[in-house]
Amino acid sequence: MNSLSSPLSTKPRSLGELLRARREDVGLSQGGLAELLKDVRGVTQGKISYWERDVYHPDPGQLGELGQHIFRDGDIDLAVALARLHPPTGLSAASAA
């Protein structure tokens, strides 16, 4: 896992907020992160957008790969807790937004 030095400026309320904050912390666009994860099953820029909007959540394998690229120590535990507290909304909610 990365040991990024910057703490979160605000406490994330969802897994999507945590993913976006950490992606931005390391200076990656959604497309840049998708390129890093191109060998991980099914990860695209669009999927990352869904994750950040809490439409869907990454599966455990994808979450582990994210941990290797953008998470700080302890973020995996936080990510799992946030995913349990705030389940994904699903595609029907996203299309209504």
Polypeptide structure, described:
This protein has 97 residues and is mainly α. The chain has a single domain, classed as Orthogonal Bundle (434 Repressor (Amino-terminal Domain)), CATH 1.10.260.40. The chain is 55% helix and 0% strand. It has six helices and no strands. α2 (30-36) crosses α3 (45-52). The protein is globular.
Name the helix and strand elements from N-terminus to C-terminus, one letter apiece. Answer: HHHHHH
Number of strands: 0
Roughly what is the average pLDDT, rounded to an integer? 85
CATH architecture, by name, is Orthogonal Bundle
CATH topology: 434 Repressor (Amino-terminal Domain)
In percent, how much strand structure appears in the residues? under 5%
Number of helices: 6
Q: Can you identify the CATH class? A: Mainly Alpha
Report, as a whole number of angstroms, the end-to-end distance: 34 Å
CATH H-level homologous superfamily name: lambda repressor-like DNA-binding domains
Indicate how many domains the architecture comprises: 1
Q: What structural class do helix, strand and pairing data support?
A: mainly alpha
Unreliable residue stretches: 1-5
Main sheet: strands, sense, barrel: none
Judging from the principal axes of the Cα atoms, what is the shape? globular
Helix content: 40-55%
Whole-angstrom Rg: 12 Å
